[in-house]
Amino acid sequence: MSIEGKVLTRYEHCVGKIPSFAKHLRTWGEAGTVKIKTATTAKLADKGIQCMFIGYATNSGGDVYQMWNPITNRVHNTRDVI
Fold first, then answer.
1. Which of the four pLDDT bands, split at 50, 70 and 90, describes residue 2?
2. Among residues 24, 35, 46, 48, which one has the fewest Cβ atoms lying within 10 Å of its Cβ?
3. Is 33 in a helix, a strand, or coil?
């Protein structure tokens, strides 16, 4: 989109910069393993669960993903995804 001779995205024209998640783009619906291990989790217990990517966390950095767990029907905001 060109405004006043500048070819930028609509977001760049409105905000003045590239969005923070632009370097961390992922495919919607992509499967990933979310880390759920805590300090009290047993050593040999499962350390992750299979979730689906549904978006980016709005109030966090660009590398924080929203992952949906279809078993519990909950959304995890996390950076720890493989």
1. low
2. 46
3. strand
